[in-house]
Amino acid sequence: MAERGSSQGPAESEPHGDGGYNAGMAVFSYIIGGTVVWSLIGWGLDILLKTRWFVLIGALLGIVGGLYLAGKHGLFTQQRGPARAEPGDDDVEGDSST
To answer: What distance in Å separates the CA atoms of residue 88 and residue 13, rounded to the nearest whole number?
Structure first.
């Protein structure tokens, strides 16, 4: 019977090496997508209300929204591989080793 803390386990399924590129593309797509969508909404409001400045507000709102979503998804943090727990880092109640 295998022990709970043994080093044998399933192989890692996540590839290493393209995390920065993928995160960069996600940030880029959030910003461009938000800018396009909110600019079109602003353009529609400009036509309905006979103004010229809603498209600019929509573009700025799209940029800010894209940056917010990228930050909310943690795409600005540097990730260096999967987090590994140290053998002594268990948060088990009743552990009196500290």
So the answer is: 25
